[in-house]
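Why does residue order matter? Because the sequence determines the fold. Keep that principle in mind as you read this record.
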Amino acid sequence: MKTLTLISTAIVVALVTTPPAVSGASSPGQAYRQYIDALFRADPDQVLDVIVGRPDQIGFIRTFITCLRASNDFRRRYTAAYGRVEWDKFGQNEPEAGVSAFNLPDKIPIDTYRALLKKQPVSNGREYIVSQENGTMRIVQRDGQWYLQADSLGFEGRASQYEILTAVLREYQTRIGAPGETSSGLRVALKMALRRTGQW
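Structure:
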């Protein structure tokens, strides 16, 4: 009984003395690099760790990056099973099958990723900025930590779209390589399934 009490006490002490996790980054450069690296890896937790914004903005970014991860997983398995040429046909019209081109969210190309990592935030008054092709990222300080401002990151769309796309990708991923399943049959079925949702 004494041993159990000591263990319980030790657990309580550990819980009380363990410092809470701190979000954000210690510098603008660290916040930017973590964001780019986590976006490349499609890691929603690490991305959101260095972002501030309204709850709806944060929710949408999580949904989008979760979808990006599902798309990356689907692409990797589809390409491994059927080849890159078949994967590229997602971005092509297939009139004989009655489906149009559909470009799935894709990961940042490695060369683009490396180029983005080389960029350095520039001081702009009380915030820092990073110029991009689609706008200017803003990095702000909150409670001593640095974060990217959600509304400066260029995310747009409806959360419901990406939730549906994630679900469809995960469903059809289970069919990759199944007996009797062909690359074209799976691709056309997936495109048709997305069209039936009315969201894509």
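The helical segments are 2-17, 28-41, 44-48, 55-82, 84-88, 110-118, 159-173, 183-196.
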